[in-house]
Amino acid sequence: MSAPLKPLKTWGHLAKRRRKPSEYEIVSTNLLWHTRDKEQPWDVGHTGFMADFYRRYRNGSPITHDDWNAFRDPDELVYRTYNILQDGQESYVDGLLDQHNKEGHDRGLTAEWVATLSQLYAPSRYLLHTVQMASAYLVHMAPASTIANCAAFQAADSLRWLSRVAYRTAELGLAHPAAGFGKDERRHWEELPAWQGFRELMERQLTTFDWAEAFVALNLVAKPAMDEVVLRQLGVSSRRHGDVLHALLAEAELRDSERSRRWTLALVQQMTEVESNVPKLTEWIRKWEPLGAAAIRAYAEQIPENAEAADNAIGAVRAFHRQLGFGD
């Protein structure tokens, strides 16, 4: 007679660690039901458009790994801790807005800088929405729940800051009703030369379906390009025009970008554990990097009082690539 089985003290996929699993491990790992069988990703229908889509663009990606579920978010965020973290961030931003509103900050801005904000800041909500959509795509297509969670928090970050841009647009419109705030953003996004590089970059990214290439295009090129020029370099110019509020808001948004880069680095490190992945990742970075550089240059040409904006932003993106193990 066989010995009775001993009950597990935790979930089977966590038992091998021989320690009590953390909250992050319990609620974040091995959650995707549609990764159990590579050939049959959809239990409700093994044929049809969605099953074929996942087989081709996720399961059939040229970027492979034996255990995507081994990926871990360096910050080990879960929904609960993300909300605690961002509640503090939102309180900080609310404090900035309240303080500067009481001081009549927006009324003291120069006409030149108000025009810059109207053209280069207020339309950025369209760019942030594309980043949100692209991040949400990764949520659906990622081969592990721990990767999907990171993309979900990145999408939430974009939505939060999109909302802040809309709020600031309304505030600036009250202080400067003739400047076109709340009226001209779509036209600026579609027609101003400053935005056309980012429009092309994001439209191409949003029609890239292989999950790994979509990740490379977004997290290694498009989002770093936005971070370095739309946030950092416009923030540099804002200080030179006496708009400290804008600079502080940009710095607050960049804190979220730093967290995004941490999980991006961790995922790239996992990808490069498979030697055959490296040439394809290199190929994709070389494919997308010129589009990112062109987007930066088109935007940076319009930033006043910051002649080094393009070179500084492009240099920062390339430094990030070197940190990831790519580039000269």
Short characterization:
The protein has 13 helices and no strands.
Give descriptors for this structure.
328 residues, mainly alpha, 13 helices
Give the terminus-to-terminus CA distance: 65 Å
Give the SSE string.
Answer: HHHHHHHHHHHHH
Question: Residue-averaged pLDDT, rounded?
Answer: 93
Radius of gyration: 22 Å
Beta content:
under 5%
The helical percent reads 55-70%
Q: Given the C-alpha coordinates, what overall shape results?
A: globular
Largest sheet: none
Helical run tally: 13
Let me know the number of strands: 0
| Parts with pLDDT < 50 across at least 5 consecutive residues | none
Structural class designation: mainly alpha
Indicate the topology.
Blueprint: H1 12-15, H2 23-28, H3 49-59, H4 79-102, H5 111-121, H6 124-141, H7 145-175, H8 185-191, H9 193-206, H10 211-240, H11 244-271, H12 277-300, H13 309-324
Helix pairs in contact: 4-11, 6-7, 6-9, 6-10, 7-11, 8-9, 9-10, 9-12, 10-11, 10-12, 10-13, 12-13
Mind explaining what this structure looks like?
The protein is mainly α. It has 13 helices and no strands. The protein has helices at about 10-15, 25-30, 50-60, 80-100, 110-120, 125-140, 145-175, 185-190, 195-205, 210-240, 245-270, 275-300, 310-325. Helix 10 runs antiparallel to helix 11 (about 245-270) and helix 12 packs antiparallel against helix 13 (about 310-325). The longest helix has about 30 residues, at about 145-175. The radius of gyration is 22 Å and the shape is globular.
